Structures are given as C-alpha cells and as structure tokens.
Amino acid sequence: MDKELVLTKEEQKALRLEVSRLLDFCHEQKCPYRSGFCASTRVCPSCPVGKAIQALGKKLWMATSSPSKGKPWTEEDEAFLIQHFLQLSVEEIAKKRGHSLYRVLYRVRVLQAKGVLGKKRNAGKKKGEKAV
C-alpha cells in the first residue's frame, strides 16, 4: 500500500464507520473463527471479516500517520552520545546533535538495553530527578 495515500476527513470517517459495521457484524454473527467470549476488539486474521477490518485499518493508518519529523540518527550521533553520556545532560546532547529530547532518551534506552550504555547515577541531576 502506498504511503502517499491521502484521504479526506469524510473518507476517513467512512472507513471508520465501515470498520465499526464489520465489527458489529462479526459480534452479531458469532464469528466461528473466534474462540470463546472475548470483550476486546481484536480481530482474527483467519476470518474473512477480520481480514477486511485489518485492510481498512491499514488503509486508514497509512493515510493518517505522519513520517518521523526528526532528523535521522547517524553513527556519529550515536558515537557522540556514547562518548559524552556521562559528562553531558541528555538535554545538552539533544541540543548539540540537533535531536529532540525524546529521540535522545529513546536512543539512550535502546543502547542501555543493548548493554552499550550504563545508567547515570545522579550525574548532573537536580534533587528529586530520576537518573536515566
């Protein structure tokens, strides 16, 4: 499906209504693909109705999601983060590298999960703030 898909608000509303109609149909017809009682709105990928719901949902998502607005993360950015993580605050790293605070925090978490970065122990933190 093309990422450039553009839908009007009316088309988006029509898609949402169709998904709702299909969900109602699935619940009313006691879909044989569902196992037992389920109060969630999850759909079964084996069910023809579920496939239709997923296709409509994907079309709607593709039309309404926006690409990442931040600049791409480079190897140089990552090396800078690793080298300066203990000396600089996350805010300073974000400013120096031109990334948002949240992108830097996310990258820190990824690198910590990989074991590349350790945790800061109150380095540069004010009283009451958590260490990253």
TrEMBL record:
Keywords from the named record: Plasmid
Name listed for the protein in its UniProt record: Uncharacterized protein
Species whose genome carries this gene: Geobacillus subterraneus
